C-alpha cells in the first residue's frame, strides 16, 4: 500500500511459483516469530529478494501500529517490534519518526507521486508514457514552490493532458 499509494511505485506481482506466506499475525506469533523473521525467507530466495528489499522496509516502519492503528511496542506474544529499515535502499531509519524524516528528506519523490495520482484523478484515466513530460514539469514547478498543494492543482489545470483531450507535446 505504501509503495503504491504514497510513492506511486507499486511492486510487480509475485511470480506464480512462489508459495504463499502466512499472513495471519496470530499464527506467525504462535510459532515464536516476528513478521520480520517470517519474511526473512524471502531475502534468501533470489526470485523474491529484489522486490522484498524494496517493500519490506516500508511495512517494517509501520509495524508499531496494530491492524486497527493502535500503537504497540510488542506483539501480543510479547516479542518486541523492530520497526527499523532502509528507505529506497539508502536512508536508514530506526522507527516511524525516522521513517517520516527519511521521506521528508526526499520530497521530490513524494511530490512526483502525489502529482501523478492527482493528474490521473483529474484526467479520469491512468497516466500514459506521453504524460511524463507534463509530470516532470509539474514536479519541477511544485518543488520550486516548496511543495505547495495549490501549485500542484494550478499546474495540473495548466498541463497539456488536462487542457487537451488527446494530449500534445509538452514543449509547445
What does this structure look like?
The chain folds into 2 domains: 103 residues, no CATH class; 57 residues. The protein has 9 helices and 2 strands, in the order H-H-H-H-E-E-H-H-H-H-H. The protein is mainly alpha-helical and 172 residues long. Helix 6 packs across helix 7. The radius of gyration is 20 Å and the shape is elongated. Strands 1-2 form a two-stranded antiparallel sheet. The two termini are 36 Å apart.
Number of strands: 2
Measured between the Cα atoms of the first and last residue, the distance is: 36 Å
Q: Cα-atom Rg, whole angstroms?
A: 20 Å
What would the average pLDDT be, to the nearest integer? 87
| Helical content band | 40-55%
Q: Major beta sheet, specifics?
A: 2 strands, antiparallel
Order of helices and strands: HHHHEEHHHHH
**Number of self-contained structural domains:** 2
Low-confidence stretches: none
**What is the number of helices?**
9
Amino acid at each position: 500500500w505504501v509503495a503504491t499509494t504514497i510513492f506511486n511505485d507499486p511492486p510487480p506481482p509475485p511470480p506464480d511459483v512462489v508459495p504463499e506466506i502466512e499472513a495471519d499475525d496470530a499464527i506467525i506469533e504462535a510459532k515464536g516469530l516476528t513478521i520480520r523473521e517470517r519474511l526473512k525467507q524471502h531475502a534468501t530466495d533470489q526470485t523474491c529478494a529484489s522486490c522484498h528489499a524494496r517493500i519490506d522496509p516500508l511495512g517494517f516502519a509501520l509495524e508499531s501500529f496494530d491492524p486497527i492503528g493502535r500503537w504497540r511496542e510488542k506483539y501480543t506474544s510479547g516479542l518486541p517490534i523492530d520497526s527499523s529499515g532502509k528507505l529506497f535502499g539508502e536512508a536508514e531509519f530506526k522507527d516511524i519518526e525516522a521513517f517520516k524524516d527519511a521521506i521528508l528528506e526526499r520530497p521530490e519523490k513524494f511530490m512526483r507521486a502525489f502529482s501523478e495520482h492527482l493528474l490521473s484523478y483529474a484526467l479520469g484515466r491512468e497516466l500514459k508514457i506521453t504524460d511524463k513530460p507534463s509530470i516532470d514539469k509539474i514536479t519541477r514547478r511544485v518543488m520550486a514552490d516548496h511543495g505547495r498543494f495549490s501549485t500542484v492543482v494550478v499546474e495540473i489545470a495548466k498541463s497539456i493532458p488536462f487542457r487537451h483531450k488527446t494530449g500534445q507535446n509538452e514543449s509547445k
